[in-house]
Amino acid sequence: MNANEQAEVAERDAQRFRDVHDKIKREVQRFIVGQEPVLDAALTALFAGGHVMLEGVPGLGKTMLVKSIGQAVDVPFSRIQFTPDMMPADIQGTNVLVETEGGGHELQFQEGPLVSSLVLADEINRATPRTQSALLEAMQERQITVGRRTISLQEPYCVMATQNPVEQEGTYPLPEAQLDRFLMKIVVGYPKVEEYEAIVDRTTAGQEPEIHKVSSSQEIMELRKVALSVPVPQRAKRYAVHLVVGAQPGSEHAPKLVNEFVALGPSPRAVQALMLCSKVRALTEGRFAVSTDDVKAVAHDVLRHRVLVNFHGQADGVTTDRVIAEVLGHVRPPV
Predict the structure, then answer these.
(1) Is 78:113 a contact under the CB 8 Å cutoff?
(2) How does pLDDT run across 13-28, given as a tens digit for each residue?
């Protein structure tokens, strides 16, 4: 295959990716009003093969957005409403004693809601560390272990978790190791003033829009391969590395704010996440190559949960978003 033929194939793949992405997005937007950046981020995680954390106060539509994606894509979908008394067996599955045809009894394994493809983990910070560790195995290893039984999870596997940042009573903040497993962390804000009327019309008129299945698990897996095949120029790759290193205290690329107020910077996994998200963004923007603008556009969502502000910074009101903004202003794209 010569260069022209390769370019034609790449263009067809990119066009197909955009068509499917936009089709799912339009279908979800038949029910969800606004929150376009949140929807884009959730679809990025789905196409990039990662997981996403949605953080916002109650009532902003986080749960409904994820459920709508599950309805628009023909994949096994499950929802877990986490509570402090939930045990790992409640989400992984457990052996149950059942009666056989001959009147005897035998143990049968009944799968839990983690055995799915698209998992909505609602209020994940209400789960105890034991239950969070069970979810961590599923997210990282794409498998669950119950006793001596190991179950491989069906691809495409994606966890979309929500948490409330305000109400902290009875919650267990996720450790940095588990937060790092999320591809992105999205802060869900309030709708725009002009969007409230549309929200009322769609949710209180007695007839909700019906969401149709417009894609499949096979198609999602095929498009994941397309996303992975997007080339990354050396300039964009080096820029991503410099951004990550620039958020690490003591680095030559770190601005003064990072050295003063950051206790823990992002790991190499952050560079991988920047590359994956940038590839998906390049495709949705109509390009089959990553640019430094793509890297910059996804930096906040990718790095937000990977930067730990120290006590002095918290006392001075320094936020992770401010740190990332400082890094973006300090680190320039390589020439």
Answers:
(1) yes
(2) 888 889 899 999 988 8
pTM equals: 0.87
- Tell the CATH topology of 230-335: Helicase, Ruva Protein; domain 3 (1.10.8)
CA-based max dimension of the chain: 76
Count the helices and strands in the chain (H runs, E runs): 14, 13
In sequence order, what are the beta bridge partners of 74? Answer: 216
Closest by CA position to 167, among listed 64, 253, 58, 74: 58
Nearest to 144 by CA among 172, 171, 177, 119: 119
Give 19-23's long-range contacts (Cβ < 8 A, gap of 24+). 20/214, 20/215, 20/219, 20/223, 21/47, 21/223, 21/283, 21/284, 23/214, 23/215
Enumerate residues 6+ apart whose C-beta is below 8 A from 223. Answer: 16, 17, 20, 21, 47
| Alpha carbon distances (Å) from 254 to 75, 247, 294, 296 | 43, 6, 21, 16
CATH tag, 32-191: 3.40.50.300
DSSP class of residue 111 equals: E
Query: In the chain, which residues fall in CATH 3.40.50.300?
Result: 32-191
276 touches 227 (CB < 8 A): yes
Residue 328 has pLDDT above 90, yes or no: yes
